[in-house]
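Is this the right way to post structure tokens for a design question? Let me know if I should format differently. Anyway, here goes:
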């Protein structure tokens, strides 16, 4: 008698199914522009660096060794590490090319 009548909430309308996928599309876009795209750009730069190696270039390997390119083949490079010490590396091990004359300063 003293209990007020309970009113049911009006039925909610159906939402658009495209709006359900919108957060996934936004997350994929962020993932692409913040992770995949910069990584592909870095891989492309490293590939061009390794393809443009030439005899006489001074380089740093991924392990941190400085050397001068003495001999090259399709997949390998031979570096002079100083005092006539020659060492063989895969081309992928070359991390960066140094400016000419860097080895003299070390």
């Amino acid at each position: 008698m003293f209990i007020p009548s309970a009113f049911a909430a009006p039925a909610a309308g159906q939402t658009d199914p495209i709006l359900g996928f919108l957060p996934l599309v936004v997350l994929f876009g962020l993932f692409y522009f913040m992770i995949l795209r910069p990584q592909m750009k870095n891989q492309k730069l490293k590939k061009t660096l390794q393809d443009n190696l030439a005899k006489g270039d001074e380089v740093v390997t991924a392990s941190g060794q400085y050397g001068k390119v003495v001999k090259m083949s399709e997949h390998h490079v031979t570096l002079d590490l100083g005092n006539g010490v020659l060492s063989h590396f895969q081309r992928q091990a070359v991390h960066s090319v140094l400016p000419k004359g860097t080895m003299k300063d070390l």
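Format looks fine. Someone answered above. Worth noting: Residues 16-52 form one domain. The chain has two helices and five strands.
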